[in-house]
Amino acid sequence: MNALTISSHGGLDRVECRDDVPEPELHSRTDVRIRVRAAALNHLDLFVVSGLPGVTITPKWILGADACGDVEAVGADVAHVRVGDRVVVNPGISDRTCEYCLAGEQPLCPRFRLLGEHLPGSMAELLVVPAANVRSIPRSTSIEHGAAFTLTTLTAWRMVVSRARVQPNENVLIWGIGGGVALAALQICKQIGARVWAVSSSAEKLRRAKATGADELLNRSEIDVAKAIRERTGKRGLDVVIDNVGHATWPQSLLALGRAGRLVTCGATSGPMVETDVRRMFWNQWTLMGSTMGNDAEFDAVVDELRAGRLLPPIDSVFSLEDGRAAFERLASGGQFGKIVVRVS
Question: Residue 36: how many CB atoms within 10 A of its CB?
Answer without folding.
Answer: 29
